[in-house]
Structure formats: structure tokens, C-alpha cells
Automatic annotation (TrEMBL):
This is Ferredoxin. It comes from the Bacteria. Pfam families: Fer4 (PF00037). NCBIfam families: di_4Fe-4S_YfhL. Its cofactor is [4Fe-4S] cluster.
Length: 81
């Protein structure tokens, strides 16, 4: 699954620089995650770094974008070519 930032986001700016794939950007009101770039940090880290640094725990798995570990790893390989 890709990750999703909820409307509880306080725009603290700590998640965006932690994303190794550049999947996080400022949306109209809160930060957003581009599911085509999000690998949940597979290939880079053991845990999603945005979730690790979020002070309000507003980042969760996106039920609308279901991916398994293999899919996330293939996406990582494609993004890092």
C-alpha cells in the first residue's frame, strides 16, 4: 500500500525531507503523498520514515492503494534506475 496523510496534518514540514522518493509534497491545505512514488521506504529503510517522524501520527496505509512487499520493491527498483 502507499501511505496517506490525514487531515490531522499540522503542516509541520518534517515528513517531506524524509521521503527518499520525493513522494511527499505540499497540497492545497495539507501535505500529500503521491502513491505512484511511495514505496513505504521499501529498498531504502526498514520503516516508512515519514511515519517515524510525524509528531501527530497522521500518516497511515492508504486502503485505496493496495500493494504487497514485492510490488513496493519493484516500484523502488523502477524509481531508482
Amino acid at each position: 500500500m502507499a501511505l496517506l496523510i490525514s487531515d490531522e496534518c499540522i503542516n509541520c514540514d518534517v515528513c517531506e525531507p524524509e521521503c527518499p522518493n520525493g513522494a511527499i509534497s505540499q497540497g492545497e491545505e495539507i501535505y500529500i503523498i503521491n502513491p505512484s512514488l511511495c514505496t513505504e521506504c521499501v529498498g531504502h529503510h526498514d520503516k516508512p520514515q515519514c511515519m517515524e517522524v510525524c509528531p501527530v501520527d497522521c500518516i497511515s496505509k492508504d486502503p485505496g492503494v493496495v500493494e504487497d512487499q514485492d510490488s513496493l520493491y519493484r516500484k523502488y527498483l523502477k524509481l531508482t534506475r
